[in-house]
Amino acid sequence: MKQIDVLVDDVLLEIFDFYVGMRTETWQSLVHVCRRWRSLVFGSPRRLNLRLLCLPKTSPKDKLDVWPALPLVVSNNIGNIISILHTDNLNAVLGQSNRVCEIFLRNILDWQLENILEAMQVPFPELTNLKLFKHEFRRGETLSCIPDSFLDGSAPRLRYFTLDGISFPGLPKLLSSATHLVELRLDDIPDSDYISPEAMVALISVLSSLRILSFGFHSRQSGPGPESRSLPPPKRSILPALRRLDFKGVTKYLEKLVTAIDTPQLEDMHITFFYQVNIDTPRLAQFINRTPALRARDNAHVQFRHWNTSASVVLLAQSSTLEIEILCELDRRLSSAAQVCNSSLHPLSLVEDLYIQHRYYLWPRDCKNDGIESTLWLQLLLPFIAVQNLYLSKEFASGIMAALQDLVGSRITEVLPSLQNIFVEGLRVETSGLFQENIGQFVALRQLSDHPIAISDWVKDSHMK
Questions:
Q1: pLDDT in tens, 87-129
Q2: Which terminal Cβ of the chain has fewer Cβ within 10 Å, N or C?
Q3: How many Cα atoms are found within 13 Å in the side-chain-facing hemisphere of 340?
Q4: 151 CA to centre of own chain
């Protein structure tokens, strides 16, 4: 202790700043050490970002009456469940509207939202972070609507805003005042709160500081109607700071949205489409081509997920990600992935490393390598004309090799013409005679066509990026 006492105040504050940044209330242990430390901490509330964490089960008297009037963080994000016993505590803290700077509440039920909204009809001038999540077991249900009087219709300091599964028809009015918004997440938007692509563009085009935009609809019913015009607007809106864009909905909606915006700094784009028979996105392709970071592709991952019945195509570069996921039934995953790969995604023609893999669960045991599946595999692989290295999970190796060995004569290089190496997971323990026969025939045919390939074992950890 004597050694640290020789440090000047500025050095101590640097140390405190690092320590306090770990958790919201770590500063409380510092003020109990000695009078000097207590004086330094309370004398630098802004530099040390001093805040009080208020949990639903915490009595307001334990926070509001004991400590100085510091900014308040209202949260139940560490396992605390809001119960009927806690609503009085929550309302008492929210009653300090001039001090609340962050609100983060998960698993909200309808009656709880009504209580929360009742306490939030006044201005919250210090509020910078607001995140409200519907209860995870109430998906598909619509909670009470947030009224236009929410936050007195203004949020001038709001920087991070998330609504999950909660209806808020007056959202455009509130966001028109949130000119410093950095992150906007609107997930599981109820069908009743449908926001047209044109309205969404108008909403975000004035948010010049926005870095993250994520929005998704609850169902495929939220989409432009047949009467919606298809003509592009005369001028695109520029979102100068946007780095990440997440979307969940139908292709027609996204096509209209990306036609109306330019995002020169966009690095990550994650798209989830509800299943539809025809998946073609020419305007999305144009958007990708005019977005510098999304044009370059180092490798591609075609992934099949069992747990949420989806297929996705993930394109990766050193500093960017483009993912297109299709929510579909189990037996439509392969055809959906093949559609995505053939839907005007020009970056696929530049990919040199292709990974075909499962995520979390195995490929269904009843999936047969019949003629239809072979055709779909060939269709999926067709756009990858520059691929030199192909990595196959063991679930797909047999089916893909059966499809490739069907290519004979002049067709042998029709698919994957630049291929040089195939890496197969578990190759050393593969016992299927049919697999060995198929892969042997394919290698021999490529050798005869003067396009030799090598087969190696794929140890995933050594190749995954």
A1: 778 888 899 999 999 999 888 888 888 888 889 999 999 999 9
A2: N
A3: 30
A4: 28
Q: Which of 247, 189, 250 is nearest to 218 (CA)?
A: 189
Rg (CA), the chain: 27
- Give CA separation, 287 vs 146, 155, 222, 302, 376, in Å: 34, 32, 22, 21, 27
Token pair of 370, please? 């019949």
Please give the C-alpha separations between residue 255 and each of 74, 149, 203, 289, 291, in angstroms, as whole numbers: 39, 34, 17, 14, 15
The length of the chain, given as a count of residues: 465
Question: Which pLDDT value is given to residue 363?
Answer: 47
CB 189 within 8 A of CB 222: yes
Q: What is the largest CA-CA distance in the chain?
A: 86
pLDDT per position as a tens digit, 421-444: 999 987 766 556 667 777 888 888
Per-residue b/e over 324-360, b at no fewer than 16 CB within 10 Å? bbbbbeeebbbbbbbbbbebebebbebbebbbbbbee
CB 380 within 8 A of CB 355: no
Contact in structure between 50 and 19 (CB atoms under 8 Å): no
Q: What pLDDT band is residue 365 in, cutting at 50, 70 and 90?
A: very low
User: Which residue(s) pair with 274 in the sheet?
Assistant: 327
CA–CA separation, 71 vs 206, rounded Å?
Answer: 29
- Please report which helix (H) or strand (E) contains residue 137, including its range: none
Answer whether 293's CB lies under 8 Å from 320's CB: yes
Q: Classify residue 165 as exposed, middle or buried by CB count within 10 Å of its CB (0-12, 13-18, 19+).
A: buried
pTM, 2 dp: 0.85
| Coil vs helix vs strand at 201 | helix
| Domain ranges across the chain | 1-50, 296-465
Burial code (b: 16+ CB inside 10 Å, e: under 16) for 408-447 equals eeeebeebbeebeebbbbebeebeeeebeebbebbbebbe
59 phi/psi in degrees, rounded to 5: -70, 130
